[in-house]
Write a structure and sequence with these properties.
Number of strands: 4
Number of domains: 2
Shape: elongated
CATH architecture of the largest domain: Up-down Bundle
Largest sheet: 4 strands, mixed
Strand order of the largest sheet: 1-2-3-4
Strand content: 5-15%
Helix content: 40-55%
Structural class: alpha+beta
CATH class of the largest domain: Mainly Alpha
Number of helices: 7
Radius of gyration: 24 Å
Pfam families: AHJR-like, DUF4145
InterPro entries: AHJR-like, DUF4145, Restrct_endonuc-II-like
Length: about 210
């Protein structure tokens, strides 16, 4: 009747998180169960997880909120609901935050450049927010799937999207930004360094634009 959810990285994470949560609550969890782990009425179903705790049974399906209502899910809910001791749980994939558009990010970098003259710390945080948004845009255009800035920088450098000097500059700025954002001691942002970061953001804007079809 219905197959398991297509396992994108976000779906895998959501399914793993659900399995961990259920196990912590005392459930025995099987990922991607086969027909032998389901009752005959659900033999043609491929849920993402099935869980058991005493006489209780769960069928877990991972879904995206962006997908339209699926008749298979309605039928699955009816069939699971008809089985004593069984219920269906839907787990939704967390929605990725939308990245600001290029023009907004470019304007943010420009504001940071000017702000650096009077408040380098605030300017650095603003410039980094522009840079990080642009890095995500560049990554999305190349099929990279990572939200960790350190891994993102390394991946873009390995693809030649940023050169070695830019990689070093961005990693240093990221480390200073983290110290500021988390109240840790670190080097004081320099006005010229922040302005160079803002200039680099403008270069990344151009690359992000040229990478579009």
């Amino acid at each position: 009747m219905t197959g398991a959810t297509q396992f994108t990285p976000a779906v895998r994470e959501a399914a793993a998180a659900a399995a961990g949560r259920l196990r912590s609550q005392g459930w025995e969890v099987v990922s991607d169960p086969g027909a032998g782990e389901l009752p005959p009425a659900l033999a043609d179903v491929r849920p993402d997880l099935v869980a058991r705790r005493g006489d209780e049974h769960l069928v877990v399906q991972v879904k995206s909120r962006r997908m339209p209502p699926n008749m298979d899910t309605v039928v699955l809910a009816e069939r699971v609901g008809a089985l004593p001791g069984w219920r269906l749980e839907l787990v939704y994939v967390p929605e990725a935050p939308l990245t600001a558009d290029r023009e907004e990010l470019s304007q943010r970098a420009l504001r940071a450049y000017n702000l650096a003259k009077t408040d380098p710390e605030a300017a650095l945080l603003l410039a980094w927010s522009a840079v990080e948004g642009l890095l995500h845009r560049l990554a999305e255009g190349r099929g990279l799937d990572t939200d960790a800035p350190g891994a993102l920088l390394s991946a873009l450098a390995s693809l030649g999207v940023i050169d070695e000097a830019e990689h070093r500059q961005l990693r240093e700025a990221w480390e200073v930004r983290n110290a500021l954002a988390h109240g840790r001691q670190g080097p004081t942002p320099d006005k010229r360094a922040v302005q160079r970061l803002s200039d680099l953001a403008q270069l990344l804007t151009e690359r992000s634009t040229s990478a579009q079809p």
